[in-house]
Amino acid sequence: MIGSVLALALFLFAQARPGTSQPGGFREVVDLTHSLPASGLERQQKSGYRLETVALSEKISSSEASEQFATRIDAPARLIRGTWTVDQIPAGRLIGPLVVLDVSAGAKSNPDYEISVQDIARWEQANGPIPLGAVVIARTGWGSRWTSVRNYRNADAKGAMHFPGYSRDAARFLAEGRNALGLGIDTANLDRGSAKTFAVDQYAAEHGLYLLTNVANLDRMPANDAVAMVAPAKVAGGSTAPVRILALVR
Questions:
Q1: Is the Cα torsion angle 20, 26, 27, 31 positive or negative in sign?
Q2: Is the distance from CB of 180 to CB of 136 less than 8 angstroms?
Q3: 14-41 pLDDT, tens per residue?
Q4: What are the two backbone dihedrals, phi and then psi, of residue 225, each rounded to the nearest 5 degrees?
Q5: How far, in Å, CA of 45 to CA of 36, rounded?
Q6: What are the DSSP calls for 90-138, one per residue?
Q7: Is the Cβ–Cβ distance between 220 and 245 less than 8 Å?
Q8: How far apart are alpha carbons 195 and 187 in whole angstroms?
Q9: Phi first, then psi: what are they for 183, rounded to 5°?
Q10: What is the number of alpha carbons within 13 Å of residue 112 lying toward its C-beta?
């Protein structure tokens, strides 16, 4: 008799349990992160997750660093001494409204495409002003090349890489005009692959923005109405680190 009662109680309890739901009314959680290969993790553990020895003037080194880290975050300290390292970025700056700038049409016909202020203006005409304190990530379509190192680098005969990036004016508008917390992209660097300098990276670092590169799954994201949760490995004194980026879609 006792056994029958317990069985009935368990059955009724199971029937009454609500279905699984996402927190805070969000309908979906999308992982915007490429996996870090175990071999890459071992290399970075041995080196303390530091890339300070990488020469920023060498594009090939920048690409190799990106591959080692898969999806990564660069703190302002990577370019500006005395600014935030990865572990010093305030936690409040690692979560915010997520804005996805889709420039894949332009990048499809021009691998050296630069995201412009005009691209941002078109986004705002369609979606309203970019909210202050957002995490802005550009979808260039380059993520479809991730499985091929050759296609992802897209190097020419002289070794110069060709992939899309931000223009300095666009980065300036987002930093100063929209108070962005961080800028991201689905390529190996915020500056386009053929750029001669790291002007966008430098400008963003000078203004306290962190950079997110090799971002994944942007084809699954709406233009807005999502929240970004940026969770880097908390590397003491590190200027760059692997990062997990989750998008909570309303």
A1: negative
A2: yes
A3: 444 444 445 567 899 999 999 887 665 5
A4: 65, 40
A5: 12
A6: -GGGGEEEEEEEE-HHHHHH-TT-EE-HHHHHHHHHHH-SPPTT-EEEE
A7: no
A8: 13
A9: -120, 140
A10: 8
Query: Which residue in this structure is represented by tokens 């005409």?
Result: 125
CA-based nearest residue to 181, from 211, 157, 161, 149: 211
Phi and psi dihedrals of 179, rounded to 5? 50, 45
CB count, 10 Å around CB of 28? 13
pLDDT in tens, 147-198: 998 999 999 999 899 999 999 999 999 999 999 999 999 999 999 999 989 9
**DSSP for residue 46:** H
Question: What residues contact residue 23 under an 8 Å CB cut-off, 6+ apart?
Answer: 248
Instruction: Spell out the residues 6+ positions from residue 116 whose beta carbon is closer than 8 angstroms to its own.
Output: 167, 169, 170
The Cα 123–Cα 50 span in angstroms is 36
185 forms beta bridges with 138
- Taking the C-alpha atoms of residue 115 and residue 109, their distance in angstroms, rounded to an integer, is 14
Whether 248 and 229 have beta carbons less than 8 Å apart is answered as yes
Q: Which of 10, 75, 54, 24 is nearest to 207 (CA)?
A: 75
Q: How far apart are CA 184 and CA 233, in angstroms?
A: 17
CA atoms of 180 and 7, how far apart (whole Å) = 55
Residue written as tokens 């931000």? 166
CA–CA distance, 162 with 195 (Å, rounded to integer): 9
Q: What tokens were used for 152?
A: 């992802």
Provide the whole-model pTM: 0.82
What is the distance in angstroms between the CA of the first residue and the CA of the last residue of the chain?
48
- Residues present in the chain in total: 250
Q: Please identify which residue in the block is written with the tokens 């969770």.
A: 231
